[in-house]
Amino acid sequence: MASMVSNPISLTQPLEPIRPECGYGISKLFAVQIPEKQKNILRTIVQIAIKILYVFAFVLMTAAIFPLDSVFIPGIAIGASVLTSFFFKSRCESAPPIFKRLPSLLSSSKKPEKKTGVEIAPPLLSEIQEGKPVGLYCSGMNCSFNAFIHFLNSDPEAAKRLRFSFSDLPAFENFLTPLHPPSDLIEAFRHYLGAQKQPQKLTIAFKQFIAGSKTLQKEAAPFIQFAKNYNRSLMIVRSLSKLFAAYDRAIQENRSIADTNTHSLRHALSRDNFSISPSEKIQQDPAELLKIIFDLLPDSHQIAYESAVHYDINGLPPIEGLPDGIERREEKTWCFSLEIKEKQPQLQKMFHDFCHRQSENFRKEFLTANGKRGYYWPKQEELLFTKAPPVLRFHIKRFEKSSGPIVNRVLRRQVKNDTPIEIPSTFGLKLKDGTVQNYRLTSLVNCEGAALSNGHFIAGRILNGQRYIINNHKVSPVDLQTWEEQVLPQAYLLSYQLDPEPALDSL
Hints:
The chain is an alpha+beta fold. 35% of the residues lie in helices and 20% in strands. It contains 15 helices and 15 strands. The strands form three sheets. Strands 3, 7, 10, 11, 12, 13, 14 and 15 form an eight-stranded mixed β-sheet that branches. β5 and β6 form a beta hairpin. It starts with 25 loop residues before the first helix and ends in a 5-residue tail after the last strand. The model is unreliable at 1-32, 87-128 and 407-411 (pLDDT under 50).
């Protein structure tokens, strides 16, 4: 880094500004340099023209459906209804559903804030002292996105990381690392920054560096894959940054968040993963959404454990490289997926059985003294924890393919297993050295409904000793009895935070 001192560069550049998607090509129109006053006039003219087209289209549709002698009656009614959209703000909850997607004149009346050369990163939850969560408005079936946002916010380190301010080079490098960049790419980017005479935003500088780099041609295949991952991930990161910034502002102002933020996040995730639908009419599994997000984070946010597979070596020669017959591997996961196998399941027993399960590993082959093939068969897989992870996350497998009516089987409908589970507010995790670490429940996600496709997801949070149920924009405190009898037993996702106090008993 000493070679870069001669040409210093400011690495405190903010994240590249996000233009809200307009859907009418206005963002492209405004990409050219137009004075702000003329830009506002042009925006107003375009929106008025669009509203006139809406009225004209409705009148023509009415004329095509009804007889000519009755055109004016329904035409006037529909035209008047469309004209009322002028008085509704964009995506206003009080507006009829058909008007929530119409452009609004009032949305452009607010004067844009003057921006200086340096943007201030959005405040973090630790600075705001979140005392009560805020809700998110929902239209369509975006409740799963609202629920998983609250689930993420319950993890302080993940919540801080997901702000993605890119305020300095180390933060940007932490974003690049999980994407598995080609060898020496980050180091080459550092030298590129040091050679620049003018400071640039990191995302813009990286884009220019990639476009003009000839040293990457030797690794064409891995670089192309990395470039795809980078572009998709950056789109998700921008949506997350915008959403969490809106969440932090809403906490300060004690209000709910508009649903436009979750729409942009859904669109970004659908571009990254084909299993995520961009349509608001399709319900998504929050567990699947969380997996995509945690794949963007460094490995430090994953749950690390040791997988020990025990092989049956009775009467057989020792396994080469495994004298004790145990194969050990370091593994990481964002959560532990637990199956419901009993009529009265308990979370701690479910996790204990998961950590001492029948191994699914492949058999190992060896040759006997006479040249015949023999096999070592795995007996059991044991999950061990050398160090207590800061967060424990559990995914209860409540959805399974329907075995009922043939319609459900043909549509591959995933029905819900609503068996109540005994879930404690504190959880003891036994480590490899025999000590037990205590965890406390901080958040959960529940699903109301008989199936994933038509279910409704709600979130639960515990903040400052108070329990909350978050049903989209409605945030309601609940008493301990309601929490333990109605909320906890039907949990779908659970998040436990490490408690510094040691646990009194083990699993």
